[in-house]
Each structure stands twice: as C-alpha cells, then as structure tokens.
Amino acid sequence: MEPFVKGNKKDRFKNLTYENKRGAPPRIRLLDSDDNVVEELNVESWDTDAVEEFLAQRLIGEGSDAAIE
Questions:
Q1: What φ, ψ does residue 23 adopt, rounded to 5°?
Q2: Closest among 2, 45, 9 to 25, alpha carbons compared
Q3: N or C: which end of the chain has fewer CB within 10 A?
C-alpha cells in the first residue's frame, strides 16, 4: 500500500484516505456518501497494479470515498 500512501500514486486518488492498524492485514473499505461501509476487501495478496486497477474502476464520480487500513 506504500505507493498509495507515500509513493508516486498518492496524488492519483484524491478521495483515498489511509489508516494504519498495527498487525491488521491491508484492507480497502468502500464507503457511501454517509461514510457507511459498503464493501470491505482484504488486499494483502494484491500487487500494486491490481490495487490501482480496482481503485480506478471503483473511485470514479463525485462522492466516492474509500479508506485503506
């Protein structure tokens, strides 16, 4: 997840937020406009390209939001 937090991909997804939970596997949470979790995925085995493709497909349009932990 580092490229999306500190690396060259951090500016690509403006509505992406990061939360670090020690000992927890990396996850993507998709939230609705009221900040309710709509979908949560464990992305521990995903490579950077897979995460980027997923986010590009899902984080389009206004009001989209997501959190990575």
A1: 85, -10
A2: 45
A3: C
